[in-house]
Amino acid sequence: MGDARVRVELGAVPETALWTLYHRAAEARQWGGVLEDPRAVELVDRIDYPFEERFGPGAGLQARLQGVRVRCFDREVEDFLARSPRGTVVCLGEGLETQYWRVDNGRATWLSVDLPEAVALREELLPPEPRQRLLACSVTDPRWMDEVDDSHGVLITAQGLFMYLRPTEVRDLIAACARRFPGGTLVFDAVPRWFSRLATEGKLRSHAYQAPPMPWGMDAGERSKLATADPRVSEIRDVLPVGGPGRAGALIAAAVRLPVLSSRRPSVVALRFADRDRRETP
Ligand SMILES: C[S@@+](CC[C@H](N)C(=O)[O-])C[C@H]1O[C@@H](n2cnc3c(N)ncnc32)[C@H](O)[C@@H]1O
Q: Which InterPro entries does the record associate with it (predicted)?
């Protein structure tokens, strides 16, 4: 990574990638954190942006929650690469995620899809390595699917993305993935409905930052409805967080277990799509 500081100004939705980067790096800096991510720490130091002024001090529970979400995705990618070492990992809305440097196995292919301004920034700050490719394309435009080689298996991740799409876009995207990638898996996270409502009413404020609208929300207890997006959705799995050490870890573990909170918490879901043989059975 180069040394010169890079001034960054982004529109409201791509800017959310700075929020996740900042909290991920904060968790990586935290003693006893759940995440090792030196690349994210370097990146925050390199970007000329008023992180603390906009997003607050960046430590504590917020950072832990971010780290826990990231670990859910990392575990899914690690498991996929253990089964399909030469597979393709497609990262939708990847922003400035540094997952490649945390979990790559030296053989897989990576495709990153994001909006043009986010991709331009990623290209400058995290230039792609030989097995990585960047594509400037909205995830709602099926063009990105033509770029995916799924001959050795495919895992599609959408971390911190679906909440910024409209409900019909989420449904159509799930259905299109089920159609195009038989045997593939899609992992994504969802904010609960109450959270989506607050964001959309402009009530999610902290420090000098107001989160953009989040039109799509899904309570964790609703995940079985995802099967209605397409009959090829063959498995729906709740990817449970591991809270990590300390008080923050204990709080997260309790929230997942308590029924009243559990059904309305943020969630990470893995959808598996029926493979070609099963799909073609009448
Ligand atoms: C909250 S950030 C998450 C970034 C990264 N996945 C992470 O977890 O750090 C949301 C990302 O989704 C991207 N995004 C939002 N809408 C998109 C769309 N329609 N097509 C492609 N990317 C989109 C944004 O540009 C941004 O990079």
A: Ppm1/Ppm2/Tcmp, SAM-dependent_MTases_sf, TcmP-like
Give the Å distance between the CA of 26 and the centre of ligand 1.
20
Beta partners for residue 267, in sequence order: 190
The pLDDT tens digits for 236-260 are 999 988 866 677 777 777 777 777 7
Q: Look at residue 155 and tell me if it is in a domain.
A: yes
Does a structural domain hold residue 100?
yes
Q: What count of other Cβ atoms lies within 10 Å of the Cβ of residue 229?
A: 18
Q: Which atom of ligand 1 is nearest to the CA of 169?
A: 19
Give the Å distance between the CA of 116 and the centre of ligand 1: 11
Give the model confidence (pLDDT) of 32-91 as tens digits. 889 999 999 999 999 999 999 999 998 888 899 999 999 999 999 999 999 999 999 999
* Beta-bridge mates of residue 210: 205
How many separate domains does the chain show? 1
Number of helices (H) and strands (E) in the chain: give both, helices first.
11, 11
Structural domain containing residue 171: 67-280
CATH of the domain at 78: 3.40.50.150
Please check whether residue 40 lies inside any domain of the structure. no
Q: What is the Cα Rg of the chain in Å?
A: 18
Judge whether 53 lies within some domain.
no
Say how many Å lie between the CA of residue 203 and the centre of ligand 1: 21
Report pTM. Answer: 0.95
